[in-house]
Amino acid sequence: MPKYANKTDVSSTRSRMEIEDTLIRYGASGFGYVRQNNTAMIAFVMENKQLRFTLPLPDPNDEEFTHTPNRGIRRSPENQRSEYEQAERQRWRALALVIKAKLEAVECGISEFEREFLGNIVLPDGSTAGDFMLPQIEQAYKNGIMPGLLPMLPQGK
């Protein structure tokens, strides 16, 4: 299946700058960017809430970069780097698209801010609402029982 912007020549740096500019244009403050190993993170404040997007980056040692897809021939270090950088640029373009689309949906009244960004809202313990809610949602689907209002308490109390 084709990936959005899989042949983009827009640099990762330019995409990050575009994300920051877009966020500022829509009223965000406190923008920050961090990268460690194969993960990048964009954080900002908007609507009096802290938000975080985590962007998983590919592993440059994955076979998709070190070897050709059809014949499995080892690529030169230059070709490996080129393939990896292309994949990284694609992911940054996709993140820029997601953030822009969410902000525009809110701006046009298609959705509400909290609905669009719910999974990315940072909670007081540093986790996101998505980190907190997804295991509970999965459990509710498995057992058909809604979690309690205070999930830290035993059921029935």
Which structural category do the helix and sheet elements fall into? alpha+beta
How far from one another are the termini? 49 Å
The overall number of domains is 2
Please report the total strand number as a whole number. 3
Going across the major beta sheet, what is the strand order? 1-2-3
Please give the count of helices.
Answer: 5
Radius of gyration equals 19 Å
Helix fraction by DSSP (H/I, runs of at least 4): 40-55%
Secondary-structure element series: HEEEHHHH
Give the overall form.
globular
**Average pLDDT taken over every residue:** 92
Largest sheet: 3 strands, antiparallel
Low-pLDDT segments, ≥5 res: none
How large is the share of residues in beta strands?
A: 15-25%
What does this structure look like?
The protein contains five helices and three strands; from the N terminus they run αβββαααα. It is of the alpha+beta class. The chain has two domains: 12-122, no CATH class; 125-157, no CATH class. The chain has a three-stranded antiparallel beta sheet, with helices on one face. Strand 2 and strand 3 form a beta hairpin. Helix 1 packs parallel to helix 3 (77-107). The model has no long low-confidence stretch (mean pLDDT 92).
Give keywords:
single chain, 157 residues, alpha+beta, three-stranded antiparallel sheet, 5 helices, 15% strand
Quick recap of the structure?
The chain is of the alpha+beta class and 157 residues long.
Write the layout of secondary structure elements.
Blueprint: H1 12-25, E1 29-36, E2 39-46, E3 49-56, H2 63-66, H3 77-107, H4 113-117, H5 129-143
Antiparallel strand pairs: 1-2, 2-3
Helix pairs in contact: 1-3
